[in-house]
């Protein structure tokens, strides 16, 4: 309780654990959130809700409010279905029913795509004379539900090919680099509808961040997505400079979208993404919770709760 005394709530709505490509277990992440003075934290692993249960017990222990979320790999524009066209967009889904069958199905297709990409990337690395195996990747990925390029990067660090994840991405793993391989992503509009149907709240993560095309996700496109039910934009994110944040805030105001902020923390996996480095305004968070309550009611579910404090 003392953390809350004399100031507003500190709310960080986008973080990763080892369930995807963070480097902390959900339990370690909750302890780190308390240590960082956060009152509320959103756990948003890539394409998986597998960390929710462990995070919930830990959050109750350390008295941090937990927002159960996930970050869904989607594609927007162009022809969908693995053709490689369209722009990759990360969609944050807050407080959806994780057992809603269409959501479970969509996530399992994405996770399958993640798994089948690993040998394809390894093949390309081998063509460059770099020998790592699927076992090497499994060894660093541990029990991650969502194997990603960061794990391949970690395997490259382990064999001494690169110094850190950043170097692995820059030299090999980003589009245009020699070991980049595309993977399946769900259609953005469909996933916006699906998160709502599951009683959750859809928010676009880092809309103009790295790997995203500003021109392809401008106000006109965002207005169309808002009509389809998009509820918010993650404005305060390390991938956005001051000008991008100001423009996005204006668009959110015009379209009546919720504005969120977050660290997109990945433990030691990403520098300059410390817990609480960006936060969400408590009034915007209240809007998000209110919408979650209404969407849950419309989906025939009980109102979602935070685990401890903050709400
Ligand atoms: P994937 O999930 O396999 O598509 O890999 C993308 C993920 O890698 C992103 O969500 C980030 O978490 C992470 N990532 C992207 N670029 C970098 C980088 N330069 N250094 C560390 N992690 C990165
Ligand atoms: Zn990530
Ligand atoms: Fe992301
Ligand atoms: Fe993220």
Explain how this protein is built.
With 311 residues, the chain is an alpha/beta fold. The chain has 2 domains: 2-111 and 183-299, Alpha-Beta Barrel (TIM Barrel); 120-173, DNA polymerase, domain 1 (Orthogonal Bundle), CATH 1.10.150. 40% of the residues lie in helices and 15% in strands. Strands 1, 2, 3, 4, 5, 6, 7 and 8 form an 8-stranded mixed sheet that branches. Helix 9 (242-255) links the parallel strand 7 and strand 8. Helix 1 (26-35) packs parallel to helix 2 (52-62) and helix 5 crosses helix 6. Mean pLDDT is 93; it is low at 79-83. Bound molecules: adenosine monophosphate, zinc ion (ZN) and fe (iii) ion (FE) (2 copies). Residues 71, 90, 205-206 line the site of one fe (iii) ion (FE).
Low-confidence stretches: 79-83
Counting DSSP H or I runs of 4 or more residues, the number of helices is: 10
CATH class of the largest domain: Alpha Beta
Report the principal-axis shape: globular
- Kindly identify the CATH topology of the largest domain: TIM Barrel
CATH superfamily of the largest domain: Metal-dependent hydrolases
Radius of gyration based on Cα positions: 19 Å
The percent of residues in helical segments reads: 40-55%
Q: What value does the average pLDDT take? A: 93
Oligomer: single chain
Q: Would you identify the CATH architecture of the largest domain? A: Alpha-Beta Barrel
Tell me the total number of β-strands.
8
What number of structural domains do the residues give?
2
Secondary-structure content class: alpha/beta
Portion in beta strands: 15-25%
**SSE order:** EHEHEEHHHHEHEHEHEH
**Could you give the distance between the termini?**
13 Å
Which hetero ligands occur in this complex? adenosine monophosphate, zinc ion, fe (iii) ion
Largest sheet: 8 strands, mixed
